[in-house]
Amino acid sequence: MERVGFVLKVRQERLAEYKRRHASVWPEMLAALRETGWRNYSLFMREDGLLFGYLETDDFAAALARMARTDVNRRWQAEMAPFFENAGGKRADESMLRLEEVFHLD
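Above: the chain sequence. Below: its structure as tokens.
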């Protein structure tokens, strides 16, 4: 199992809307995440928009690839793209800066 941490940056002027959208994620998006191997997935955000994500999966590259092949992910990513800084024309799921795990209690 892989534990994955990543960061993205949400635009300051879009913070409230980003939080609102994540208060009611589409049921088909939630199902797709589960079906493609994303477990224990959480997002945390600082006041300045720095977003930290955490998930567990058997194979992160495979989970990303499976998710990228779903229609619901294409629609979700298209809607969410304007929320992120420094994406360089990429979708958020392509722009995640993965962090190195340096400690785990268990």
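Residues 71-80 form the longest helix (10 residues).
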